[in-house]
Amino acid sequence: MSNTNIQIFDTTLRDGEQVPGCKLDTQQKLIIADRLDNLGVDVIEAGFPISSPGDFKSVEEISKLVKNATVCGLTRAVEKDIEVAAQALTFAKKPRIHTGIGTSESHIKYKFNSNKDDILFRAFQAVKYAKSFVEDVEFYAEDAGRTDNEFLARVCEQAIKAGATVLNIPDTTGYCLPSEYGAKIKYLKENVKGIEKAILSCHCHNDLGLATANSIEGVINGARQIECTINGIGERAGNTALEEVVMILKQHPYLNLDTNINTKHLYGLSQLVSESMGIYTQPNKAIVGANAFAHSSGIHQDGMIKNRETYEIINPKDVGVTESAIVLTARSGRAALAYRAKNVGYELTKLQLDIVYANFLTYADRKKEVNDEDIHQIIETSSVSQQILSA
Ligand code: KIV
Ligand code: ZN
User: Fold this and answer.
1) Of the candidates 23, 65, 22, 24, the residue with the CA atom closest to the CA atom of residue 44
2) In this structure, which CATH number among 2.170.270.10, 3.40.50.620, 3.20.20.70, 3.40.50.1970 belongs to the domain 7-277?
3) Which pTM does this prediction carry?
């Protein structure tokens, strides 16, 4: 891995699947895991093996199936969890155990009724125990976003001392501002003894709509892995959206950070996850929403028809969308109507266009969107239909 390469850790099948009411069966998970492997993700978090026999089986089957990516299983800092995860990962070509513990004041006090020294000890023990099963151990400091940086650095040091290869710094509650999260990563890079032995990972939740921005700030400040889900699905407001961080890094080459993702598969995978989980993707969702490459106002359509780059910063083909859409509504202009009419076989003169356009506006005021069928009807019922049809 070069120093400019950002590892993509996909957790659609673990954190993503924690969406209320969306249970995937093993077969559905296998199909998604195979497509994620094909997409080029570096790590697939396949599940939380101790949580249920079904999750154990999914992690085991995914481990057998996946050819390229590391397969990861989540645990708490509990011996039994770690043993069960190791067992579920037996067949993985590249297994990783992801273990950890809450580190913020509120987690220490309310979740564990404990103290900082005990958390340091349990972090060390969990990583050390996981290391007795696999070489690749990732440690998470749950609620790191609200953990004071000095204590967080001490926890990270313990995890490194026990052999952690990756240190996950979750903003579990999605609270941090991008500047704060970036500063946290920078602080850890500069203050954790032995940090060169591990990579830092961003795991950001979207409670304030900042998950993507925070992850990007994290990698700008030295993290080398992003944990994310397809369509940004996950608990509450979700996780960082994989398609967003990947395309941000691709569209901003001066950041000099890249990923191994084949972006042409993004749209197809987004559709698959949405259908399998029964979770509808909002139309204005960046990159993969139905309207991400649709243009409906006259001014934008005119620009787009002259040159796509006037209103699009991404070529839709780069993410697997066949083409941009020029949507005909009552806000559309003549250029858009002429363009769409040409696509269905009518080459209109300027005069013909003026006449057909007047018909079109009356029609479009009654209908939200004018489709190809409607265009035929508008032209056939216009006063110049004979001229157009016989041309
Ligand atoms: O958000 C979080 O803190 C997590 C950890 C379990 C990694 O998902
Ligand atoms: Zn999470």
Assistant:
1) 65
2) 3.20.20.70
3) 0.95
